[in-house]
Amino acid sequence: MRVELNRGGFASPYATGGGGTVLEHAYGAVLLAALLQGVPVSGLGNEVRPREVRFQQSATCPVDDLVVLGDCPTGPRTIYIGVRRAPTIAAGSPAFVELLVDYLRMVVDRQAGLDVGRERLGLAVASPHKGASQVRQLGFFARRRPDNTSFRAYVGEPMATSRDVRTRLGHLDAAVAKAVTQACVLLAGQGSGTLAF
Fold it and tell me: What predicted TM-score, i.e. pTM, was given to this entire model?
């Protein structure tokens, strides 16, 4: 195996397989700083103050890179964050589809908490990331629509968003469909029955 060295004579994180780990640690440090300062964490909610940050929680959940627990006036809230440096957000990326399988497992296992907003899912990526920015826009639109039908109708309007964002929705739909197929096989093998969305 050949490892490229940077100018300082050290192997780059990518060359040694640690590019994602470096991002995870850096973002974890940001979350810990928010905890120490008592300021909100993106994705957890502006009314929530973090009280605990956990790293690598695979023993308790499939989306395990970072888990942030916080308290708000209505009770505790948790966000489970997957960290990927530069994911390809499309069905053609086996790594991204596998990540979505983990998210689907969370949706099935923690549906009650997710439905009431007590639990949330997040994805942290290195910025800038065009695909993640487009998914963020789609999430923004989805949160402001009462249901899937009105969300899709809105995104389909010519002036609502860009063609690239509409195309990204198609890529995301295809990736989710592929992940659902894989998750159904995996979950059926565990005796969990079928997925219902």
Answer: 0.77
